[in-house]
Specification:
This protein is mostly helical and about 450 residues long. Helix content is about 45%, strand content about 10%. The protein folds into three domains: about 1-90 and about 150-170 and about 180-315, 3-Layer(aba) Sandwich (Rossmann fold), CATH 3.40.50; about 90-150 and about 170-175, Glutamyl-tRNA Synthetase, Domain 3 (Glutamyl-tRNA Synthetase, domain 3, Alpha-Beta Complex), CATH 3.90.800; about 370-445, Arc Repressor Mutant, subunit A (Orthogonal Bundle). The protein is built from 18 helices and twelve strands. The protein has helices at about 15-35, 50-65, 80-90, 100-115, 130-135, 185-195, 205-220, 250-255, 260-270, 280-290, 305-315, 320-330, 335-340, 350-360, 375-385, 395-405, 410-420, 430-445; strands at about 5, 35-40, 70-75, 95, 145, 150-155, 160-165, 175, 200-205, 225-230, 235, 300. The longest helix has 17 residues, at about 15-35. Bound molecules: glutamic acid. Glutamic acid binds near residues 9, 42, 202 and 206.
């Protein structure tokens, strides 16, 4: 079935890998089913929402390869929300409450002290006209709670299987704040109904909300969407990711030179029954992914795993796919260079180091030549062939050097590598030596 799905971020910060997960999963489901992906900004909180963040989110998603079929923002739909809120008030399912935050806090403390769950006691339902008038005279404004049906709500979750929530242990949720603004709970349901959303895929921190929202859906429509709650990503110390974790933001990964495909594969497959693996493109990721492969326990994020995946993807990336980005790094006409170094980098910008080793000078932190090898270097220099050089030059040069010095293996190759590149690890020298060229090789061996 063609699923209509949505990713609904609040534009109150940049997205990180943990937010990219629902975005990508929703998008993949739309791709797989020939459906529609809606990017919806949950921006009813005018104070914290910023256009700049909405723009950044759209840009970060585009970088990941996620392009919405439709973009919506809740701030443009207030009339629709007001109409439904009025309807719920008329039905007696949305009721005014006057407790201050402090009063609610004290209530919860008393409940805990008596060993009771801190569920809202519905005292506001008992207020008479006189008490309400007194509150209003004090200048208090009401906030509005949804009157839950205290039943058990059950659904078939696309990831977690059958889920059941007992609503008598859930507080009637506040849908409208004292200042008249909506929390996301009600607008989200209204949007999902109006936009024909067929499947809500989001993090498992929303499981309780789902029970509440299913009750609201049932009042508004006979087509309640399906729900799927994916596991959340946690860091190595087991904590959830917060918006303040700058280093894991999609922006910073892009600036650090990660491949968007690596970030996408990692964000989706880590924490599923599939291993994190290089794939050709997003279509291949869509083929491999299925909601029922997502684990129920948290998905642990280790940056080292992403680095490793990124390196594996680069090792298999052809020149045409990176030529533009290499040019942006000042590397033009570098096809032979790319093939020589792609197996030795973790992130694309790492090529800069090898480009300057090939075409400019040795790195500042170059490994020093061992003075004990002076004689060996003198012979190497004497045997160095004249140009033109090609991929066979290294072999013929080192074979000649081997028979003259009797050195072989590491004792033959390592001093040459160190002198020519200033590094003890790096690209195959058969491919890299011609890039260094005769004159620089002479200088470095001398
Ligand atoms: N704005 C909500 C969030 O970011 C959306 C949740 C949902 O997908 O319904 O958590």
């Amino acid at each position: 079935m063609a699923e209509i799905v949505r990713f609904a971020p609040s534009p109150t910060g940049n997205i990180h890998i943990g937010n990219a997960r629902p975005a990508l999963i929703n998008w993949l489901v739309a791709q797989k089913t020939g459906g529609q992906f809606i990017l919806r900004f949950d921006d009813t909180d005018a104070e914290r929402s910023r256009q700049e963040y909405a723009d950044n989110i759209a840009e970060d998603l585009a970088w990941l390869g996620v392009t919405p079929d439709r973009v919506e923002r809740q701030s443009a739909r207030m009339e629709a929300y007001d109409a439904v809120a009025q309807k719920l008030k008329d039905m007696g399912r949305l009721y005014a409450c006057y407790e201050s935050a402090d009063e609610l806090d004290r209530k919860r403390k008393r409940q805990r002290a008596r060993g009771l769950p801190p569920v809202y006691d519905r005292a506001a339902l008992e207020l008479n006209a006189e008490q309400i008038a007194a509150y209003e005279a004090e200048g208090r404004k009401p906030h509005w709670r949804f009157l839950l049906d205290q039943k058990s709500v059950t659904w078939e979750d696309g990831v977690r299987g059958t889920q059941s929530i007992e609503c008598d242990s859930v507080s009637d949720p506040v849908l409208i704040r004292e200042d008249g603004t909506y929390l996301y709970t009600l607008p989200s349901v209204i949007d999902d109904v109006d936009m024909g959303v067929t499947m809500v895929i989001r993090g498992d921190d929303h499981v309780t909300n789902t029970a509440v929202q299913i009750q609201i859906f049932e009042l508004l429509t006979d087509k309640v969407p399906q729900f799927a709650h994916h596991n959340l990503i946690i860091n190595a110390s087991g904590e959830g990711l917060s918006k303040r974790l700058g280093s894991l933001s999609i922006r910073s990964m892009r600036e650090d030179g990660y491949e968007p495909l690596s970030v996408a594969i990692f964000a989706v497959l880590n924490g599923t029954s599939e291993s994190v693996q290089p794939l050709a493109d997003m279509a291949a990721l869509a083929d491999l992914f299925a909601l029922d492969k997502v684990s129920r326990s948290a998905s642990k994020f280790d940056i080292a795993d992403l680095v490793h995946l990124n390196a594996r993807i680069l090792h298999e990336t052809g020149y045409d796919a990176v030529a533009g980005r290499l040019a942006a790094l000042g590397i033009e006409g570098g096809e032979a260079f790319w093939h020589a170094v792609r197996g030795n980098i973790e992130r694309l910008p790492d090529v800069k180091d090898w480009w300057s080793i090939a075409h400019e000078g040795l790195p500042e932190d170059a490994v020093e030549k061992d003075p004990a090898d002076a004689d060996f270097y003198a012979r190497a220099l004497a045997l160095l062939p004249q140009e033109p050089w090609d991929e066979t030059t290294w072999k013929s040069w080192t074979s000649a050097l081997k028979s003259e010095t009797g050195r072989k293996g590491k004792t033959l190759f390592m001093p040459l590598r160190v002198a020519l590149t200033g590094r003890s690890h790096g690209p195959e020298l058969a491919a890299f030596l011609p890039l260094i060229g005769y004159q620089r090789s002479v200088d470095r061996l001398s």
